[in-house]
Design brief:
It is a single chain. With about 130 residues, the chain is α/β, with parallel strands linked by helices. It has one domain: 3-Layer(aba) Sandwich (Rossmann fold). It has 7 helices and 4 strands. A 4-stranded parallel beta sheet has the order 3-2-1-4. The relative contact order is 0.19.
């Protein structure tokens, strides 16, 4: 099981060939192992301009197990963000929230944008797939 971040989903829907897309495609075809979270869903859906494509993508994404966010998730994300900033590392709030959800649920993150998440992997023990 893993969370695929928006960079992987966007490449998946654009039919871009990468190792990450192949892993996501395999998991989607088996209908198991793919987890979704709110920030990723929002990032994917907000970029779709065509209404039919938006509806189809929303329907497709609705079939995946959803990782819920609690108040404690935000506390932990803020702590992770602050810890990284003390080290001189500033990441986007959505990236920190996505990484924190992976930490909370104990699952790896699949990303095409490793540079954005490597600081969390190094300093917060986020597992990258």
């Amino acid at each position: 099981m893993f969370v695929a971040d928006s960079s992987v989903w966007i490449d998946f829907f654009r039919d871009v060939s990468t190792r990450e897309v192949e892993l996501l495609d395999g998991a989607v075809r088996k209908e198991r192992g793919v987890l979704l979270c709110g920030p990723v869903m929002q990032e994917v859906l907000q970029g779709i301009r065509n209404e039919r494509e938006y509806v189809d993508t929303r329907l497709m994404l609705s079939g995946f197990r959803f990782l819920h966010v609690t108040r404690w998730t935000f506390y932990r994300a803020a702590a992770v963000y602050r810890g990284l900033r003390k080290r001189g590392i500033t990441l986007g709030p959505f990236d920190v929230l996505i990484g924190t959800l992976c930490l909370e649920y104990g699952v790896p993150l699949l990303t095409c944008d490793r540079k954005a998440f490597e600081p969390m992997a190094r300093h917060a023990r986020l597992e990258l797939a």
